[in-house]
Amino acid sequence: MTTRVRYLIPWGLLLLAALASLLFGAGSLPWQEAASALVGQGHEDARFVLLELRLPRLAVGATVGLALGVAGALLQALTRNPLAEPGLLGVSAGSAFAVSLAILFGASTATLTTLVAQAGALAGCALVLAATRLQGTGQDPVRLVLAGATVTGLLLSLTSLLMLIDQRAADEIRFWITGSVAGRQWHQWWATLPSLALATVVILTVIRPLASLALGERVAMGLGHRPGLIRLLVILVVALLVGAATALAGPLVFVGLVVPFAARALAGADIRRTLWLCLPIGPALVVFADTLSRLLVAPSELPLGVITALVGAPVLMVIVRARRMPTL
């Protein structure tokens, strides 16, 4: 398989996933009518379902997949650990806990939720990395995941406790635990764009130094880079991306694990090529999972987090059980 074909396949899968998301759903709209509305024809109800319900949901799902995929790739490159993933390292759980606190105290606007989610993501990531550094286990992949699972369990338990404090907020908080893009609107999507734009600027700034850091701190310093500053900026970007994704869809696990794993399988270990392939693979995964969540138990819907967990758990077991851990 040529390099060009390897790069085109994910974009083709993303196109198919997007079409499936627009044409198929849990409602009573036949796919033929949805296809007619997609080309500007069909009746008014079909156009409403397509443009006001499914299209915003597609945009939100694609944005969430892109953010989590890129965040996972950056975390794995930073820690040089193929098991590093926002959902496993306390980042998503910290974000969800912060959002739950905000809801408990009456927050309702999408912008405030996004900012709070990003602060929680930063705190969760910093807590896990600090714990592993104190114990000297930062280079042990399995122990890093165990530390992340411990922090994640603690934060999710605290989130569940918040649900008992205020029954009014319990239903809203439950959204952040299960994960879903159902009912997302354009104004919520727009609210995350400033932070995503900032994250993009920072990524373009640190991508070359981060690739050098993969060769070792001494090599990076010899090339004129500052490893401490690189780590700080990468953690900031991860917090921005995961916070925005959690604000939109709740704490989805395993997306940040599966997407970089698939990207490296196609492009190799170079973080620059990996990030380019995360752009289509992440959205394709989440959009496809969201479509399945609507169809498997129609007319009801499964939580999106359940589908991503079913996809990601086998990938995690494959990595852990490998005789030789994948190198980054």
Task: Write up this protein.
By secondary structure, the protein is mainly alpha-helical. It has one domain (3-321): ABC transporter involved in vitamin B12 uptake, BtuC. Helices cover 78% and strands 0% of the residues. The chain contains 13 helices and no strands. It has helices spanning 3-23, 31-38, 44-79, 91-104, 110-135, 141-165, 167-178, 186-213, 217-222, 227-249, 255-267, 271-295, 304-321. It starts with a helix and ends in a 7-residue tail after the last helix. Mean pLDDT is 80; it is low at 323-327.
Principal-axes geometry comes out as: globular
Tell me the name of the CATH homologous superfamily. ABC transporter involved in vitamin B12 uptake, BtuC
Number of helices: 13
Percent helix range: over 70%
Average of the residue pLDDT scores: 80
Derived from helix and strand composition plus strand pairing, the structural class reads: mainly alpha
Task: Report the sheet with the most strands, covering strand number, pairing sense and barrel closure.
Answer: none
For the record, the count of structural domains works out to 1
Radius of gyration: 20 Å
Which architecture per CATH? Answer: Orthogonal Bundle
Structure summary:
The chain has helices at residues 3-23, 31-38, 44-79, 91-104, 110-135, 141-165, 167-178, 186-213, 217-222, 227-249, 255-267, 271-295, 304-321.
Keywords:
single chain; 328 residues; mainly alpha; 13 helices; 78% helix
Question: What is the secondary structure topology, with strand pairs?
Answer:
Layout: H1 3-23, H2 31-38, H3 44-79, H4 91-104, H5 110-135, H6 141-165, H7 167-178, H8 186-213, H9 217-222, H10 227-249, H11 255-267, H12 271-295, H13 304-321
Helix pairs in contact: 1-3, 1-12, 2-3, 3-8, 3-10, 3-11, 3-12, 4-5, 4-6, 4-7, 4-10, 5-6, 5-10, 6-7, 8-10, 11-12, 11-13, 12-13
